[in-house]
Fold this sequence. Notes:
Elements: H1 3-20, E1 24-32, E2 35-43, E3 46-55, H2 69-85, E4 94-104, E5 107-113
Parallel strand pairs: 3-4
Antiparallel strand pairs: 1-2, 2-3, 4-5
Amino acid sequence: MDKRSVGRMGEELARKYFEKRGYAVVDHNFQCRFGEIDLIVRKDKAFRFIEVKFRKSVEYGLPQESVVKRKQNKIRNVALLWLRRRHLPTDGELHFDVLAISEESRQIKYEYIEDAF
Length: 117
């Protein structure tokens, strides 16, 4: 499986994860020249900007470990642009989360980190 296919698989697992928990998926794979946001969900009045990290193996580290400061800053900036393009308030309830998904012994394991940064 190539890197792009693994990424799509992870994002599909993430969508299902949030839908089962009552979140509305608002957007996914939002891209602009500054970067990308994997998944944007909403529950009540809060928007959650989700970075999805999927690894077929944790041999080289946990998925969430790859969401470094530089990536966090990119996601924040892209989120503000997303809000502005949709004429939504930028001072509302916003959260930046990470959903780490890994496959261990043919079992899918989820770790949802709310307000990760």
